[in-house]
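Journal club prep — side note

Before the paper discussion, L.F. wants everyone to see what a predicted structure for a comparable chain looks like in token form. Sequence:
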Amino acid sequence: MSNKSITIRGAQQMVDDWIKTIGVSYFSELSQLAQLTEEVGEVARVINRTYGEQSSKKSDEDKKLADELADVLFTLICIANSTGIDLTDALDKNLAKKTKRDKKRHANNLNLKKEPYMDFQEIIGVIAQAGAKRETIKIYYPKTTGSTGGWREVEPYFLSNDTGEAAEHLVCGQDRLSPGHIFNAYTLGRGKTHYDSFILGKIRAAKATNRKFKPRSGWKVEF
């Protein structure tokens, strides 16, 4: 068995040939269901010991996730063959159903929209370097009362140490940056004539754009 380009239909034929020449005959559907449950349990065992907290035993050393998944696939194909199901056709119809049903469902699931993340000091470094070069940066900021979350391109101007709200005032010292300091910047494309104030500790990520900007009239860049 060395064919590296196996189609689903081809896999069903390969399994059928193996059963008829080596396996003698298919198990009953109920026995195959029990076998499938057993094989899925083996997959769970490997994942739990590889990615979970469970400690491995000596007997686990030769267990490979790829091999256990292949056992699950083999058993699934046996069930399909025994019940006369063409898995290629079944999967095609199933994906069409999912596409129609879930077209907007998952896109609106906020739990699936993972935010980027960078270390606080890395973010400070990106901001400082861009400010010194008079270049814009892109920052990822979470949703607030007045705006949606996401990436936004900004012109960096200066940092301050007071948010104006005691709940957010986490400053450790006048000469030391902390998550409570404020990054004052102009957000491109918003059409405003004033700074936007971003709490440093809430900025999830920052990246350079290498695009120069000319400071706005009366606005001073302090980096």
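L.F.'s comment for the group: Residues 163-175 have pLDDT under 50 and may be disordered. Keep this in mind when we get to the figures.
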